Every structure is written in structure tokens, then in C-alpha cells.
TrEMBL record:
Its main location: cytoplasm. The active site is at residues 13, 41, 139. The gene is purA. Transmembrane segments: none annotated. Belongs to the adenylosuccinate synthetase family. This is Adenylosuccinate synthetase. It comes from Bifidobacterium scaligerum.
Amino acid sequence: MPGIVLIGAQWGDEGKGKATDLIGTKVDYVARFNGGNNAGHSVVVGNESYALHLLPSGIINPHLTPVIGNGVVVDPEVLFQEIDGLEARGIDCSHLLVSEAAHIIAPYHRTLDKVTERFLGKHKIGTTGRGIGPAYADKINRVGIRVHDLFNAKHLHDKVEASLHQKNQMLVKLYNRRPIDVDQTTDELLKLGERLKPYVANTGLILNKALDEGKTVLFEGAQATMLDVDHGTYPFVTSSNPTAGGACTGTGVGPTKINRVIGVSKAYVTRVGEGPFPTELFDESGEWLRAQGHEFGVTTGRPRRCGWFDAVVNRYASQVNGLTDIVLTKLDVLTGLKEIPICVAYDVDGERHDDMPTDQAAFAAAKPIYETMPGWDEDISQVHDFDDLPATCQAYVKRLEELSNCRISAIGTGPQRDHIISVHSLID
Ligand code: GDP
Ligand code: IMO
Ligand code: MG
């Protein structure tokens, strides 16, 4: 019953799409368990490049079954756009399964996301504007709309009415906007439900049966550990649990069925949106990393903030997720640097912290304590054996491994499928 969880170990965009695609060739199911179309996962196959937002990246592999679990928030309009876009490129999406218990992102969630950010002003989170936070807020407030609600007109109308009752008061009185019409919204959602119906299934049951039959399920996380609503840099986080535990609640599979937890980390760090980021670079090194690594968001196109590898973050990710393996990506991007700093600990008001401070004010004040390693100039993109990497490059990877409290099992040396060095098998 191999259940493999794959999560982001930093602040997102670590290369989860590529890592999923890599393992996807050997698994039977790939299930998304959290987030929605705030995610942007890139997969590059030959000359083709795909940007997946709501669909699991595994959908590119025709032999596996892609699943959207109950923990995902589904914007049906976006889902159909994505399906249509992929099918036009010859990717069959007809075998997609969508949990009947997943929550829906309705048009009013997108509206609320944008007006709330504007209202927060300098306190804004820098969200993707996709309605993620408001949809999860409704779920927790127990006024959310779930996939199976779309199939009963009367029931749906009641739910939309209940959900919009308070929101319309807020939109009109607080945000000075027009109220949202209940009948029109219900009709729109009913139409979307008709198209969604063939994909809808009891995905929890299907995944559990598959695991019991010895099939392999890969649980593909979106966002990342430091964006987790419980374990990340709250309040500058997303509204779901991208950490490994979220794979269980977000699909209905118990923790005893998971035997591998793979964390994906870049060989440096990036972040999009607001919030503290101790190793962030504001000088030409940051510009250099952004240019070399093409660090611009797949979802919003925003330039990503860039900084050196933060071992405190990675140790924390190992702890929170119970990592068994790390896939280290974008090592090639560092080629050409004379020296590479690694943040090994933080200085918070003169006190050394080797572990993640739990107090967000302390984290915001954390200054990186760096150790510096020599760099390399050789092109590593065609290297397929760890021993063939330049000695200084090997030493850099070994040091990251030591500092992260977890073995590095694969190393990305470029965006393509074959730009990879396998050190330990990720699937057995
Ligand atoms: P995700 O959100 O974690 O799936 O990551 P994104 O797709 O948002 O961003 C990662 C970017 O890095 C994508 O453009 C990938 O094609 C690219 N990428 C992934 N692994 C590597 C690697 O090892 N080297 C290089 N140069 N690019 C990579
Ligand atoms: P992938 O899966 C990087 C960030 C946003 C913002 C915060 C909250 O591609 O790694 P939200 O719209 O979720 O309410 O925004 O989270 N964010 C991401 N940053 N990669 C992502 O996804 C992200 N998804 C959300 O920039 O700071
Ligand atoms: Mg991304």
C-alpha cells in the first residue's frame, strides 16, 4: 500500500510539478489534497511546457488516475478552462475524479478576496486573488458550498442564500459594492454542476481501496510548509494545510497508509506575496538569482522574492512533515557563483536560534547567520551521477543534507524531465 506524500518544504514554487511528474511515471493515482488554483505547477516534457493550477500535475501521465480530493477548493470555471486547454493539446482528462465533498470557489469568493486585500491596505497578505481564503473561511464557518450541493436546485438555493446573507451586508455597507444576486448565482452554479457531474466520485473510498489493493498513490501538495495556516508564517500564509498531515484530512486516507513523505526544496529560497523572509536578498545577488532561475510566478506572473538557502526552514520542514526524502531542485541555477552562503541559524536580538522561533515577532526579527561554501563554474545540466558533479557542488549538497536532517534523494539540474540526478529511489 505505498502512499507517498509530496510537499513543498519552503514558501512554494520549489518544483513540486516537476517532482510529481517524475514520480508520476510509476504511480497509479495522483491526488491533490489542499489549496486550489492559487497553485502553479510547471511540468516540462520535451518542447511542451504545462502550467497546472487545479489539476494534479500527474494528469500529464496518461496511465494514472488524477484525483481532486475533498481538501481542495474547486473553482469549476477554472477547472473547465484547464481541462479544455489540456484536451486541446491532446491530454485526456476524462478520467479525472473530483471529490463530492470538496468545497466550491464561487464568483463571490473571488470578489471578496480582492476587496478584502484592498481593504487591508498595508496589512494585505498579497494573495493570488483566486478566492482561496474566502472559500476556506466559508468551509470553517459552515456556510460553504460543496460539490454535491450543485446537484440539488432547492438545496443549493438555500445554501447560497445563507452564504450571501451576511456577505451582501458586508459588500454593501462596508465595501461599498453592489450586492450579489442569489438566484443568478444559484443558476450559474447549477449549470457548472451539470458539466462537473461526470467527474464527481467518492474519492476517499476509491483511494483507500486502491491502497488496500497495493496500488501506489502520490499525494501532491500545493503551496508549502511555510505557507501552512497552522505551521507557516501566520498571518502571511494560505488558508489550507499544505503540510503532510493535510494529505490525510484532504483525501480521507489515514496516516497509517502513508509510508513516504518527500519534501521539495530549492537550492535557494523564493517567496511570493507579503511576509517575513530572513534570507531575502535586496541587492544584485537577489536580482541575479531571479534572472538565472526565471523566478516569476506561474499563476500571477509576479516577480518572486529571492534569497539564500535557509537550513532552519528545511530542518523545520523535516520536523513538521516527518520528511523521509528531499528532492533538491534548481541546483543548476547556482552555477557560476564564487561563493554560496547558507543560513545555518538565526540571530534574534543577539540570541542564536537553531530552531524555528514559534513567535512570529521573533521570526520577523530573525537575522540569518551564514556559513559560506565555495561555488562551481561547470555546467551541471547534463550530469546524471552524483559522483560526476564538481567536488564543490557535491560538498554544497552534502552540507544542505546534513543541515536539513533528511537525506537528499534526487537533485534537479534543469527544468526538463531528464534534468535529474537520482541518489536514492523515491518509490519502492
Ligand atoms: P511548483 O509550484 O513547486 O510546482 O514550482 P513552479 O512550477 O511554480 O516553479 C518551479 C520552476 O522551476 C518551474 O519553471 C520549473 O520548470 C522549474 N524547475 C523545476 N526544477 C528545476 C531544476 O532543477 N532546475 C531548473 N533550472 N528549473 C527547474
Ligand atoms: P505553488 O503550489 C507560492 C501565496 C500567495 C500569498 C499567500 C496567500 O505553486 O507552490 P492565497 O491566494 O493562497 O490566499 O495567498 O500564499 N501562495 C503561493 N506562493 N506558490 C504557491 O503555490 C502559492 N499559493 C499561494 O502569494 O502570499
Ligand atoms: Mg508554483
